[in-house]
UniProtKB/TrEMBL annotation:
The chain crosses the membrane at residues 12-33, 69-92. It comes from Cohaesibacter marisflavi. The keyword Transmembrane applies. Keywords: Membrane, Transmembrane, Transmembrane helix. GO terms for molecular function: sodium:proton antiporter activity. This is Multicomponent Na+:H+ antiporter subunit G.
Amino acid sequence: MIGLTLTMISEVFVGLLLLLGAVFVLTASIGMLRFPDVYTRMHSASKAGTLGSGIALLALALHSGEFDVFSRALAGIIFFLLTTPVTAHLVAKAAYSTGTKPWKGTVIDEYADSMEKNSDHK
């Protein structure tokens, strides 16, 4: 027998979760640096950043083994999942309303189409 205990297996699993979370956060950081406009940067930060931090909090919750830490980490994950999409939407809407143009390679501007339809009905 190799001598793997349940503790060793859980430590490896937590380490893999932390590594996966770090990869997602790194991906979000690279997207913030490389993407051409505020809309694509916001998308990168909101999607990959939320997933990366959520996975890291899950690793914390599993590693601690205490209910208090687990419940706080779970609350943090839920908080990230509920607030990040709203924040990203508000940042994009604020950028659009101040006249920040999308990248010239953007093919479809659905918000402009929506604004035209709403202005026609008034």
